[in-house]
Design a protein that fits this description.
Helices cover 53% and strands 12% of the residues. With 290 residues, it is of the alpha+beta class. Mean pLDDT is 86; it is low at 1-7 and 10-23.
Length: 290
Amino acid sequence: MSAEALEEFEEAGGGDAAQAAQPNAHRPQSLLFSFFGGVVRGRDRSPIPTSVFLRLLGELGVAEAAARATLARMTRKGLLERSQVGRTAHYRLTPETDALVRKAADRVTASAPFEHPDGQWTLLSYSVPESRRDLRHRVRATLTWAGFGGLRDGLWIAPGTVDVGAVLADAGLAEVAGLAEWFAASPSPGVRVDQLIRRAWPVDRIRESHERFIRTWWSEPPGQDPLAQVTLLGADWLRLLRSDPGLPARFLSPDWPAAQSAAVYRRCYESLLPAAHRRLDLELGRTVLG
């Protein structure tokens, strides 16, 4: 899959000026990735009419003009396929983007997404020429999703054992493999792993992200239909997964909230999904049983 597609997927959870003013807001593209990954994934790939996206995004506070612009932009970028049925435009993920969403689902649906074998780490060193800032940006986005944090410029660390070659290849960044070295490692006696973790990741902000997620979803937010709720849940969950690579809880505070976040997500998702599927089937004119 292309680096451009991966970059679009990574940046779907990223921020911009609007998000700086509204830190809990999601870009429309992030919401659409959540919709496809959380609701559509695993079902048939029939194109979905524009009206479904407009209503869903409108329910989540996205204006119609912004929703239409997002669909057009994602189509231009090769993330969506557009087809026409009469006067109505329909959209679905391109095969490449569909593969990307399915691969991300391995982490999204993991029973313990914040846990790794104890004592295992991956160290990565790479050097990309300063003139290739576009490439540097894509590499950073790829490494962040793969769980890496930066110790210093060009030196990254991730909990667990990461197949870096596969990560780079899947992102269309095979050329970077020739500019990098990586190896599995374990800390030597006396190394303060807790301090190392705090150098590589903003631990306090990660904790706040977990606590915000738990507060929001401890009780399912009222006033939204299940299709909108499960889409928002997925977008919040992707953002949290992107912020916490699975930091070892034993080096953090005794009440580190990662396990509670995972339990809250599973409970809410399993509760909302059947009703979300029924709502989508109704909107698509399919027969709904039960």
